[in-house]
Amino acid sequence: MTETHATIPPGAPVFPPGRYGRRREPGRRRPVLLVLVVAVLLALLGLMATKLYSQYGDPTYNAEVITYTEVTDAQIVIQFRVRVPAGGSATCLLRARSHDGAEVGHEEVTVTARPGEQQVTTEHRLATTARPFIGEVLRCRPAA
Questions:
Q1: How far apart are CA 37 and CA 54, in angstroms?
Q2: pLDDT at 107 over 90
Q3: pLDDT in tens, 27-48
């Protein structure tokens, strides 16, 4: 006849007492350690994202077209404003497009702010191969 224990649920393994050491209670975990590891990981990811954005983000070189005038079959004059770091300079890519959307002219222009100023307003005469419909500033980046 086999020995049955009233305190052991059916299907649970039966180990001889004292042979395998003390068994851990099920469900007992360390949630504080897990929360701490997750918090440190999130802080490191936030610091890395901030560093990469400050290094590769381009929030300071914003350009806007004020107006474009003197539209002829061979040119357009684009007046634009660029926000740069104080006293800095930027290289901007200007583009002219015809009425059907084809590019009829483009050129890179370097602009420099006066010492202490953060905005440069300038105009540039852009030569075109056909009559332009619109003048644009595609992008500005730090001057090389």
A1: 26
A2: yes
A3: 666 788 889 999 999 999 999 9
Note the CATH number of domain 62-142.
Answer: 2.60.40.3230
What residues are paired with 1 via a beta bridge?
Answer: none
Which residue's structure tokens are 């300071």? 60
All residues at 6 or more sequence positions from 62 whose CB lies less than 8 Å from its CB, including other chains: 82, 83, 140
Q: Which of 123, 14, 27 is nearest to 70 (CA)?
A: 123
For Cα atoms 139, 143, 144, give the angle at the middle one, nearest 5 degrees.
125
- What are the CA-CA distances from residue 133 to residues 71, 76, 86, 92, 139 (Å)? 8, 9, 34, 20, 19
Q: Which amino acid is at 59?
A: P
pLDDT digits (tens, 9 = 90+) for 80-99: 999 988 888 899 999 999 99
37: number of Cβ within 10 Å: 10
Q: Which among 119, 106, 100 is positioned nearest to 76, based on CA atoms?
A: 106
Largest CA distance in the chain: 110
